[in-house]
Amino acid sequence: MRAFSxxxxxCYFGSDEELRRILERAACLGYRLVAIPLEPQLPxxxxxxxxxxxxxxxxxxVTRTDVRARGRNDLLSALRRLRRRFELIGVxxxxxxxxxxxxxxxxxxxxxxxxxxxRRFFDGAEAELASSSNCALEIEIMxxxxxxxxxxxxxxxxxxxxxxxxxxxxxxxxxSSGADRxxxxxxxxxxxxxxxxLGLSLEEALDAISNIPLxxxxxxxxxxxxxxxxxxxxxxxxxxxxxEAI
Amino acid sequence: xxxxxxxxxxxxxEGSVPRGARELEQAILNAIIELFGxxxxxxxxxxxxxxxxxxxxxxxxCAHKCLTPVRAAxxxxxxxxxxxxxxxxxxxxxxxxxxxxxxxxxxxxLSKAIASAERG
Lengths: 246, 120
Known about the structure:
- The complex is a heterodimer.
- By secondary structure, chain A is an alpha/beta fold.
- Chain A has a single domain (4-245), classed as TIM Barrel (Alpha-Beta Barrel).
- Helices cover 45% and strands 16% of the residues of chain A.
- Chain A has 10 helices and 9 strands.
- Chain A has helices at 16-29, 44-56, 72-82, 96-104, 124-132, 149-169, 188-195, 202-208, 211-224, 242-245; strands at 4-6, 31-37, 60-67, 88-92, 110-112, 136-140, 173-176, 228-230, 233-234.
- In chain A, the strands form 2 sheets. Chain A has a 7-stranded parallel sheet, sandwiched between helices. A two-stranded antiparallel sheet of chain A has the order 8-9.
- In chain A, strand 2, helix 2 (44-56) and strand 3 form a beta-alpha-beta unit.
- In chain A, helix 4 packs parallel to helix 5 (124-132) and helix 7 (188-195) crosses helix 8 (202-208).
- The longest helix of chain A has 21 residues, at 149-169.
- Chain B has one domain (6-119): Alpha-Beta Plaits, CATH 3.30.70.3250.
- Chain B has helices at residues 21-44, 67-76, 96-119, and strands at 6-15, 47-52, 57-63, 79-80, 83-93.
- In chain B, strands 2-3-1-5-4 form a 5-stranded antiparallel sheet.
- In chain B, strand 2 (47-52) and strand 3 (57-63) form a beta hairpin.
- Chain B starts with 5 loop residues before the first strand and ends with a helix.
- The A-B interface holds A 17-18, 21, 24-25, 28-29, 142, 145-146, 149, 181-187, 189-191, 193-194, 196-197, 202 and B 14-15, 34-35, 68-69, 71-72, 74-76, 78, 84-86, 88-89, 109-110, 112-113, 116-117, 120.
C-alpha cells in the first residue's frame, strides 16, 4: 500500500489548535507524510514539538522551508544557513538566475515556480541541471483552481510543457496540494486525478505523491543523520571494540 | 449492444452545500465541461443517484472509463456561486449495494474532521 504525502500544505496557522486541525484533516484524508513550509528562523525545539503533534495523529511531519532568494549570493548564503536545519529545502525561483543556481545545487530538494505563466523558467537547460543534481520539480495543484479561466489555461499549457521536459530529462516530479485553507485539501487519489490533467499518467501521478517524495525525504534524513559520511558510506560503529564487530 | 460498465461514487460535501440535488449535479457537470469539454461530459454519463443536503452526502454514477476525469472534475470544485465548497470522494464501487454497505464507516472519520474544522 502506498504512503501518500503532501509536501506543501501552505495553510496559515496562528495557533497550535489551528495546526492540529490541519494535521487532523490531512490524517483523515489519508496522508502519511506532510510538510508545511516553516519560517527559516524556527527554533529546533519548536520543530520537534510539531513533529510530536503530528506523530500523535499518525502522521510523519517533515520539516521544510522555502527559500525566496533575490540572487545567487542570497540563495547560497541561505542554503549554507538552512541545509542542516531542515529535512527539505524548496527554492521559489523568482528569476532565471536563482532558478539556474538552485537547479545546479545538490542542497536544493525542490524547485518551485510562481503560478504565473510568464514567470516559470523550467526549460531544457534547467531540467538538465536539475537532473544531474537530483533536484525535483514541485507542482502545486490547488492554486491552479483559484485562477481565472484565461490565466489557468495559460498556466496549464506551461505546466504540461514542463512535465514533458521533466520526463525527457528524468527530473523527478513531486505533486503537492499547495492548499492554503483546509477546505482546499483533497484526498491523495483526487490530487493524483487532478495531476493527470498535466499530462501525467495516473500511475505517474500516484508516484509523484507517494514514492518520489518519500524517497526524497528518506535520502535527506539519512544525510542529516550524524552517522552519515557520504552517499553509500555510513558510520556503523566507533570506539575500541570497532574491529571486533567486523 | 453491450451494457457499459458503471462506477458509483459516494461524495461528502463541505462548506456551503447546495440545497437541491439538481444544483449539485449541475455543479459537477459544469466542472467536467469546464475541464474536459462537452464531449467528455457526454461520455461520463453522469447521474445523481441520491443527495441529502442535511448530511452533505451524495451518491453519483458515472461511466467506468471516465472515472479519473470525473474525480478530477469533482476535486477541482472549490466554490459554488462565490461560496466555498469542497467535494470529497469517500468511496468508489461497481455496485450501489456494496457502496451503501461501506458508506457509514467511510463517512465517519471525515465528517468528524469537517465538523471540527467548521467549529473552529
